[in-house]
Amino acid sequence: MSDPDILEDGVGATEGQVGVSGESNRRGRVVFAAILGLLLLLCGITTVVETWVSRSPDEIRTITENLECLQCHSELLPQFSMEYTHNPFVREQCTTCHTPHGRLEKTTIIEGAAVTWERMRTLVQWLPLKVVLDVFYSDGDAEVDEGGTVKDVVEEQVKGDDSEPTLPKDELCWICHGDMGAMLSYEYPHAPFESGYCTNCHNPHASEFTAILKQDPRDLCLTCHPLGPELAREQVHPPVEGRFCTNCHDPHSSRFRGILVDNQRDLCFTCHPSVAPLSLKAVQHQPFMYDNCTGCHEPHGSNYMPLLIEGQPAVCYNCHPGIENDFDRPSTHPVSSAELGCAGCHNPHAADFPALISAQGNEMCYQCHASAIRTSYEASAHENTLCVRCHTPHGSNYAPLLLERNPEVCLNCHAASTYDNLVGQNKHPVRPTYYDVNAGTPLTCTSSCHDPHGSGHTSMLRYYNAPLDGNCLICHRATPGFGVGVDY
């Protein structure tokens, strides 16, 4: 064999080896690429299946329709699974509220790796579902988003400058909620609503709370309206204790003071139906009649039952200062005691009788004084005389609650010419300038002689029937030195 043949054989062998090795490398790269593609495909399928299983069909469709925005705003994805969502947010209508923004930025594969990965992950998870839904749900006329064209350089969609609202914030919500515009003309608007700061209370995208509120409504109001002091009082109004503010207040605007959902009386009647029939009574307390329940009651919490702004009788003195002066007199009805307040005699809402009293005539007094007085009084000569002919119900300078000093109060009905020793001759002294040795008090008609409420004896004498002398001998004793006037 010649040298050239040997050389050719050697060269041929070397080239064959190189060819085999190159082909092997190519096959290896193809196999590696295939395996990598298969793994990516499996990952994509797994992700798609997991997404399909874990999310509702409506939620999947919503997210795929919003995929253009969500490539950059992927932080909003969890909000699509919240219980309450804003319609524009779920209907691919971002530009209803926001101006479009962002730009294409040329980058290398290395630069912005975290953003690229986040975008790739979102696309891998949602793009296959988008393609399927576009095929089955598109109407044929809609344009198909091809996702851009392939270029030599990497182009990445970035957020760019901040998006701006399509309208000023105090006008934006009216695009869809124009039916609430009339409420701006109501007399009592809620400050955030009046100023157009809807997002002070509402999340513009989605929320776990009703009406897409930022917080549980039981907590939200407290961020601007701290009720700690009211909640710490001895008695707390149940709606306030449960923090159900919107049971009473409209969160937007109202025609009623305090942005109430109704006028005070009708609103209170919803929980206090037993008070409602009182609105038909003949005599009504002015605060009750003129829709001013809070004139007497605290709507949130109070230290005075029942939710009064002050204790009795102080709460009544706010409107009845003249009555307060009566209770500053020496002889008063004990309304400041724990057992008896103004409401013991007067209904604070309405009644059938004048002055809001709970009964008419002497029946009013018998509610407390029946056992001690009623039987003897109704058997006496004073039976048809009203208690208020002699007594004032509040306070007097003369005990016991007399309208005038004794005997003047008696002489209003009993002629002075017959009974007053200052007017005629031979009349028994009845003035407190004399001393009653039996009663140990100034002498009057009732100190030892007569009982004005009845006694069971003639002439309403306290101890003996007339004309027996026993009643007189109590003071005019037969024993010398111990009587008054003439001793027998």
List keywords for this structure.
14 strands; mainly alpha; disordered N terminus; about 500 residues
Q: Helical region count?
A: 19
Average pLDDT figure: 81
Structural class determined from secondary elements = mainly alpha
Q: Looking at the structure, what is the overall shape?
A: rod-shaped
* Unreliable parts: 1-14, 141-152
CA-to-CA gap between the ends? 189 Å
For this structure, the quaternary state is: single chain
User: What can be said about the biggest beta sheet?
Assistant: 2 strands, antiparallel
| Main sheet strand line-up | 1-5
Beta content comes to: 5-15%
How many beta-strand segments? 14
Helix content: 25-40%
Radius of gyration over all CA atoms, rounded: 48 Å
